[in-house]
Amino acid sequence: MNFFLLLILLLSLGFYIIAPNIPYIASNFSSQSPLPLDDLSGNYNYLEQLGEWEGSRITTFPYRSRMDLATRNVLSLVSFSNKRIEIDLTHQKLYAFEGENKVFEFPISSGLYNWTPTGEFWVWIKLRYTLMTGGNKALHTYYYLPNVPFTMYFENDNVSRTKGYGIHGAYWHNDFGRPKSHGCVNLRPEDAEKLYYWTEPNLNGKNSIRTTEDNPGTRIIIYGQYQG
């Protein structure tokens, strides 16, 4: 066989083997960005109407709600002790329970460019809107996303709050059901809104709320591994 044809064949075979794993290789260089602690107000930023995702300019999430106040209040009625969230990374699903009763089931997008951590966590802060930025421009994974809606950041003893892992709405893609994020759990904005008002801590009419001893966060259990 011609040497150059053999070389092309070997290079093609190597790329075929490596290509499906490129996002996971990139995860070593495109980790979840630390949580910016300078603004945790949860307020909408009217001055930032454009964002960037994977090299494309996008319009940010509009300032509006699809729920009336009465619906939000009903969602928050069940006591903290009966609520939990389960996130199945294998099947890219989020389930919300009140006791043994499943009240929500949503498709998600978990970490593609960085792993979503597994284990047992607790919501520690909720933000109606927040800025998220990170990634790597050289790898075309850079993102700058103002006004990310309905964010529920979580933590445990091994994953600190400064790591910036959370559940939130994603307005920059519509590819739910498979990994897409930098480590967070993406939901459709309309699904994130329901979960945001359902979870603890109770917002008490605010755009931002941290957990306290009297107003603790909802438990989150994350398990599995995507096999696609």
Summarize this entry quickly.
This is L,D-TPase catalytic domain-containing protein. The chain is of the alpha+beta class and 228 residues long.
Helix and strand arrangement:
Layout: H1 3-18, H2 22-26, E1 50-53, E2 56-59, H3 69-75, E3 83-88, E4 93-98, E5 101-107, E6 119-134, E7 143-155, E8 166-169, E9 185-187, H4 189-198, E10 208-210, E11 219-223
Parallel strand pairs: 3-11, 8-9
Antiparallel strand pairs: 1-2, 1-7, 3-4, 4-5, 6-7, 6-10, 6-11, 7-8
- Principal-axes geometry comes out as globular
Superfamily at the CATH H level? Answer: L,D-transpeptidase catalytic domain-like
Tally of contiguous helical segments: 4
User: What's the average pLDDT?
Assistant: 84
How many strand segments?
A: 11
CATH architecture: Beta Barrel
Measured on Cα atoms, how large is the radius of gyration?
A: 19 Å
- Low-confidence parts: 3-29
What is the fold-level CATH name, i.e. the topology? L,D-transpeptidase catalytic domain-like
Strand content: 25-35%
